[in-house]
Amino acid sequence: MEQLLHYVWKHRLLPARPLATTDGRPIEVIDPGLHNRNSGPDFFNAKVKIGQTLWVGNVEIHDKSSDWFLHGHDHDAAYDNVVLHVAGIIDCDVTNTLGHFIPQMQIDVPQQVIDNYEELLRTDQYPPCYRIIPQLAPITIHAWMAALQTERLEQKTEAIAERARRLDGSWEDAYFMTLARNYGFGINGDSFEEWAAHIPLSAVGHHRDDQFQVEAIFMGQAGLLTPESIPQRYRDEAVADPYFQRLSKEYTYLAHKFSLQPMDHHRWRFLRLRPQNFPYIRLSQLACLYHERKTSLSQLTDCKTVAELQNMMGTHVSDYWKTHYTFGQESESNTKHLSPFSINLLLINTCIPMLFAYGRHTAKEEYCDRAFDLLEQLRAESNHIIRMWSECGLKVKTAGDSQALIQLKKEYCDRKDCLRCRIGYEYLRRPKDKTQQPHEQINSKS
């Protein structure tokens, strides 16, 4: 219930009756303040007129006023600047560390807000707010989508910046690791990031002009050039394969030269993967991309159009892998270029976030602006999340739209965090007689 009290205060969904302190002084809420999600009072810099005096300070909210003492606020100087204590139940007076009594106000969560919130929590249809989406004003949807898109880019920025910190501040290495992670296309993402941490780019750079040597280091550091890494039923054929033997021999030499230690091959997943997604194929594609000098940060920042980015991410496999998906097992010849679909995913999840993150890091707004422009030029992703929102009535045209809706699903819907969602806000504030009951809507669709 305390969350709902926060919500009511923040959005000023207060009772229509005059507000007053427990000792009868009238209250006017001029500004509810800035919601604080960290330690300290719940709202900073609120403006509240109590009687004839305008107070500027903090506001603390609890289910019951006695929670003030339960949480130890009477012994915490951080709460001495609280100018108003708000509670659903007033069961005692409260004081700060100076012994001063703090004005209190009791508020009730409006019944319609409680009812609408409970509907959101118990509705089986997904997302639970589906009924209100067709009724929302386009400006409301547009503003929320824009905010979600920025939020998702900032979230990815933090992940990239954290990689750069782990890599001794090297944004070049952070870009390579981000690219590698997304070459896992979900299933092997963690494994590819771990693999990238085993690739000493400064050493590999000495052999960049030799694609075979690059592939040997990439495969070897993945732990995939040992007999133990091959399933037992294919092991004899694989180990006898001349290309496997050549790569193994070359990797042994390079590993000794650069003191390399491979990762555990058990980290790779092959089960239920389509053959074109096998780590062997993805590593060969990455080796070609690296050999062709398409993995540098400077080249990324030089790209100004979607076409330039797509051309930069375009890659293939070495000759051996055109006729193989695993060692020792020949298959029909296929160049195994990255598909346009896969390239667009790499643009959405690697190139554009990296451009935005690097723009933030270097304070170059043109990179950040370009990231947003590129998202608006790319076609929207196609997956179950996007189809779900489309069925609810949301128009999804660009990658910016699809990224916003993925953020909405993962960070709000999955967490049942409707109180922070603008669609949830519109749902909660609607009068009951303007909404159809959930069971009626579900029955009408069945």
Automatic annotation (TrEMBL):
Domain of life: Bacteria
Protein name: DUF2851 family protein
Organism: Xylanibacter brevis
The organism's taxonomic lineage, starting at the top: Bacteria, Pseudomonadati, Bacteroidota, Bacteroidia, Bacteroidales
